[in-house]
Amino acid sequence: MLEKAGLYTKVVGYTLYVIWAELRLALGAAIIRRQASWFGSLGAEKRTRNIVIVGASFAGYRVAQIVAKALPPRSPYRVVVIEPNSHFQFTWVLPRFCVVQGHEHKAFIPYGGNMKGAIEGSYRWVKDKVANIDRTAVKLQDSGEVIPYEFLVIATGAGVKDGLPSRVNATDKLEGMKLLQGMQKGVESANTVVVVGGGAAGVEVATDAKALYPEKHIILVHSRPAVMHRFGRGLQKAAREGLERLGVELILEDRVVDEDASSKVVTLKSGRKISYDFYMNCAGQRPLSDVIANLSPNSISSTGHIKVKPTLQIDDDSLPNVYTCGDVADTKTPNPNSRSGTRQATVVAENIVLAAAGKKPRHIYKNQWVDGIIKLTLGLDRSVTHLGDGISELLFSSKETDEALMSAMCWSRMGEKPFEDKYMDDHSAEVEADSSKVPV
Ligand SMILES: Cc1cc2nc3c(=O)[nH]c(=O)nc-3n(C[C@H](O)[C@H](O)[C@H](O)COP(=O)(O)OP(=O)(O)OC[C@H]3O[C@@H](n4cnc5c(N)ncnc54)[C@H](O)[C@@H]3O)c2cc1C
Ligand SMILES: NC(=O)c1ccc[n+]([C@@H]2O[C@H](COP(=O)([O-])OP(=O)(O)OC[C@H]3O[C@@H](n4cnc5c(N)ncnc54)[C@H](OP(=O)(O)O)[C@@H]3O)[C@@H](O)[C@H]2O)c1
Q: What domain of life (predicted)?
């Protein structure tokens, strides 16, 4: 009882801290804008010293937003964001939109909203991918442009080879929407669906599929004795009950060791073979650190993460100007997620603003268990929210009424009106033409 009261207190403390941090940043940005309007600012052509940010998802976009708005109006620095995706890809809804039809466009949020209010010349946005990094510059994949940097942020996150349900693996919104529609059609036309991996992605997609299509045989194969095994026992139990309530067949302590796509049979480590009509790989992601393989190979850990100092500078004394945050960073965060990535991004941004002013970076990142809060959907109409500090845990069950989950909130948080997107108007002919011949 006392432990639970302690948990509530910590949650309240954390919430107040987050609100205070947001207010502080917003106030700082407002002062910079006011200074720029009173005394003028240095134009883009005079801002020749680059702070290059590689990747603009939860972590990188946040660094860009804070730094661009915090650089003084006459700073010679500017932010250069390099991101291959046409839109911010909202991972939270991907498992849901692989099953439920009609919301695909909501998973792709236009970029730009979070940069509103940054003074002119404070940032440049480049749609491309970084192919190589040396000690002074990054080289882009498509244009071949070489962009020198004085500060560098690696926020390349994590990825999967097979793409959906976990990651889109397409840079363009329309292409991503088609991939989601292909998954939906695959589930819709299957009798038996095999889902591999009982982490959050696997549990969510399996429960959604069974909730929408109760007549189908949905099988979830997971390597460990319990689904959601990286979380507390309460969540493990709730997830299992959610799967069983719907009638998902659960195979635990076994692994898929072979998937034969031509005969549509998976083989498990135990020797068991399962025929399927549709297969969904939710076996987990790997950090995308290859981008620094030439720059600082020794900073890549055995898990593929980038080793960091508490200031989130990479763990290479010869590169004090290189930072990292989010899923790619080796922060020992027990449950890496958008909250921990965003908090790390704030630390990186504030350190870079200090360093660009000639000061020592002094902000440090410490894991806080509250970052690990998870809201797990267990079918279309319910979810469970879990928080735990390793000693005690709290679980809240909720009814869900919004099929698109938190899409609208995320669009608003990204400074965009849900779900207005000029890109969709510009591509309306293609969207209509495709709606009649969705790929399976
Ligand atoms: C299916 C799923 C559901 C999830 N649901 C939740 C949830 O409900 N709540 C929650 O808090 N967290 C959730 N997460 C976790 C959350 O999505 C991640 O923690 C978060 O996306 C990490 O953000 P990031 O910026 O570090 O990296 P990422 O989101 O992985 O983004 C990295 C970015 O870098 C770009 N990039 C990569 N390589 C290069 C390069 N060479 N050059 C330029 N750009 C590059 C990519 O295009 C991408 O935009 C979920 C994750 C998944 C997979
Ligand atoms: N609602 C949410 O907040 C939400 C939703 C989705 C994802 N996420 C986050 O996104 C990240 C990725 O999640 P994820 O679910 O994609 O990955 P994950 O958490 O790594 O889970 C994948 C699981 O699949 C198991 N597995 C791997 N290969 C297997 C195989 N061949 N056969 C059977 N099981 C296998 C892994 O266990 P082994 O270790 O034994 O290989 C692992 O436990 C996590 O941080 C997660 O918390 C959050």
A: Eukaryota
Checking if the pLDDT of 10 tops 90, the result is: no
Distance CA 134, CA 153 (A): 13
Question: Which atom from ligand 1 is nearest to the alpha carbon of 327?
Answer: 26
Lowest-pLDDT choice from 124-128, 306-310, 386-390 = 386-390
Ligand nearest to the CA of 371: 1
Full set of structural domains in the chain with CATH: 2-84+127-160+286-370 (3.50.50.60), 173-284+376-435 (3.50.50.60)
Q: Are strands 123-126 and 77-82 parallel, antiparallel or unpaired?
A: parallel
Mean pLDDT to the nearest integer, 122-132: 98
383 lines ligand 1 (CB under 6 A): no
- pLDDT bucket at 438, cuts 50 / 70 / 90: very low
* Distance set, CA 333 to CA 233, 287, 388 (Å): 19, 13, 14
Q: Give the rounded distance of the alpha carbon of 212 from its chain centre.
A: 26
CB 341 within 8 A of CB 58: yes
> Is the beta carbon of 344 within 6 A of some atom in ligand 1?
no
* Type of residue numbered 303: T
Mutate to test the pocket of ligand 2, among 161, 337, 378 (most ligand atoms within 8 A of CB): 337
- Residue entry with tokens 């840079």: 171
Phi and psi dihedrals of 220, rounded to 5? -115, 120
Measured at the CA of 378, the angle between CA 375 and CA 379, to 5 degrees, comes to 130
274 CA → ligand 2 middle, Å? 21
Model confidence band, residue 280 (pLDDT cutoffs 50, 70, 90): very high
| pLDDT computed for residue 439 by the predictor | 44
- For ligand 1, is residue 326 a contact (CB within 6 Å)? yes
pLDDT for res 266: 98
What size, in residues, is the chain?
440
CA 34, CA 222: separation in Å to the nearest integer?
55
Of 360, 359, 366, nearest to 343 by C-alpha is: 366
Q: Which residues pair with 279 in a beta bridge?
A: 194
Q: Which of the given ranges, 6-20, 35-49, 182-196, has the highest pLDDT on average?
A: 182-196
Give the count of beta carbons closer than 10 Å to the beta carbon of residue 427.
Answer: 16
